[in-house]
Each structure stands twice: as structure tokens, then as C-alpha cells.
Amino acid sequence: MGGEQLVRSAERVRDLGEVFTPAATVEAMLDLLPATMWAVHPAPTFLEPACGDGNFLVAILARKLAAVDALHASPAAAAFAGFEAVSSIYAVDISPDNIHGTPAHGPGARARLQAVFADWLAGLTPGLAPSPNALALAAWLIAHNVLVADMLDPARRDLPLHEYAWHPADRSVTVTRTTFGTVLDDADENAQRSLFDPGPEVVYNGPALGLPKALAVT
Ligand SMILES: C[S@@+](CC[C@H](N)C(=O)[O-])C[C@H]1O[C@@H](n2cnc3c(N)ncnc32)[C@H](O)[C@@H]1O
């Protein structure tokens, strides 16, 4: 696409291998995934280990939210499904600029995801301001799922991750805190969990919109 900036500097290409993927290529790649990847509940999870400023993340979220729209649920039920969609997208990049954004380069991955969600949420109730609590929950989920880390460093095992079980019947959520190492071991049936990994711990179980305040300091 003509207006897309895919390279920021020769130094960043050399040091970070930073070349962003054009939106049309992202869409063509996502088209290759089975339709089941866009299921609303339970929502399949994605992890992008070198996400840049989020070209894949925003496209994945947009597809997940389009799948919510296709259910024609009430605004409250749709918003709840939207939280699950946001929470199912995990990402890492080594460059804080890419996650947090910079004045020179513009918004990073977190802000871009938040903008996609906020636009979509506003569309659920045209003419009404989106709920600040809903926006705060999306921001909490994005801040805890989209992280700065070096995915080639063995210390990536200690990366804190949250897992979510969403309960549409009472619009509550169970949040479990774990580590990337534990998730890797659980995915590999031949691996034995390291003695040094603490294992999953339930840190919240309650109304979805109560999550940001309950876990404000973690
Ligand atoms: C080729 S770019 C791809 C960015 C994005 N996935 C996209 O397609 O637009 C590679 C990205 O990997 C990141 N990166 C490089 N080394 C990394 C590492 N050890 N751990 C995590 N991210 C890394 C860079 O900062 C850069 O954003």
C-alpha cells in the first residue's frame, strides 16, 4: 500500500530486523487460516513473538470483532465478547518504541489495538459515549498481553502472562497468572514443568468490568 511506512531506518533494519508487513499481505496471510480461528467463545489465542507496532495484531482483532458483530448480540453481550477477543491476543516485541509508540513514529501496538477496540465499541451504541469502564478493561487486557521482552533470551520463560476464562452467563471472568515458560511446558506434552516456574495462580474471579480496579497494582 502506497502510504505505509514499512522501514523506519537502516539502523533499525540492521539491529532489529525491523521491516513491517504491508496490510494487504497481513490480510492475505490471515485469509489462509481456518474459519475456526475467528470463533467468538471460546476465542482461540494468538501469540505474536515479534509483533512490531502491531500490523498483524490490529488485523486479527478486527476479524475477531467482525465475528462478534455477526452474532447480532445485544450491545452489552457484544461488548463482553469483545473483551474476550482482546484478551485472546498476546504479543511481544523487543523494542519499547514498537509497543508504546513514540512522538516521531506515532502509536505503538498497544495504542493501535486500543483504537480498534474503542472504534468498534463506539459503533455498538451509536450516539452514546462508550463506557469508560469498558475502555479501561480493554486497556488493562492490552497492557498485560502486549509486552516488551527479548524472545531469544532464556529469561523469556519468566515473562508474566495472564490467561482468561470468560463466562458469558454472568459476564464474569476468571484470570490466572502464569509465565511464558509454564505455557510452553503445558503445550509440550513431553516437557516436565520446571521446578522454578511457580505454576498458574487464580488472581481474579468476578465481574469482568471489576477487573482493572481489583488488579490495579499487579
Ligand atoms: C520483520 S519485523 C516484523 C514486525 C511485525 N511482525 C510485522 O510483521 O509488521 C521483526 C520485529 O522483531 C522484533 N525483534 C527483533 N528481535 C527480537 C527479539 N529477540 N525478541 C522480540 N522481538 C524481536 C523487532 O523489533 C521487529 O519489530
Throw out a few tags for this protein:
6 strands, 3-stranded parallel sheet, 218 residues, alpha/beta, 41% helix, 3-stranded antiparallel sheet
Task: Work out the strand percent.
Answer: 15-25%
Cα-atom radius of gyration: 18 Å
Distance between the termini: 40 Å
Strands, count: 6
* Low-pLDDT segments, ≥5 res: none
Which class best fits the helix and strand makeup?
alpha/beta
User: Based on CA inertia axes, which overall geometry fits?
Assistant: globular
Order of strands, main sheet, comes to: 1-2-3
Q: What are the bound molecules?
A: S-adenosylmethionine
**Distinct helical segment count:** 9
Mean pLDDT: 93
What's the helix-strand series? HHEHHEHHHEEEHEH
Largest sheet: 3 strands, parallel
Task: Report helical residue fraction.
Answer: 40-55%
Structure at a glance:
The chain has 218 residues and is of the alpha/beta class. Helix content is 41%, strand content 16%. The protein contains 9 helices and 6 strands, in the order ααβααβαααβββαβα.
Give structural notes.
The protein has 218 residues and is α/β, with parallel strands linked by helices. The protein has a domain at 10-155. 41% of the residues lie in helices and 16% in strands. The protein is built from 9 helices and 6 strands. It has helices spanning 10-16, 23-30, 55-69, 75-87, 96-100, 109-124, 132-145, 180-187, 211-214; strands at 46-48, 89-93, 146-148, 160-167, 172-179, 201-207. Strands 1-2-3 form a 3-stranded parallel sheet. Helix 3 runs antiparallel to helix 4 and helix 4 (75-87) packs antiparallel against helix 6 (109-124). The model has no long low-confidence stretch (mean pLDDT 93). The chain binds S-adenosylmethionine. S-adenosylmethionine is lined by residues 16-21, 48, 50-52, 55-56, 92-95, 98, 150-152.
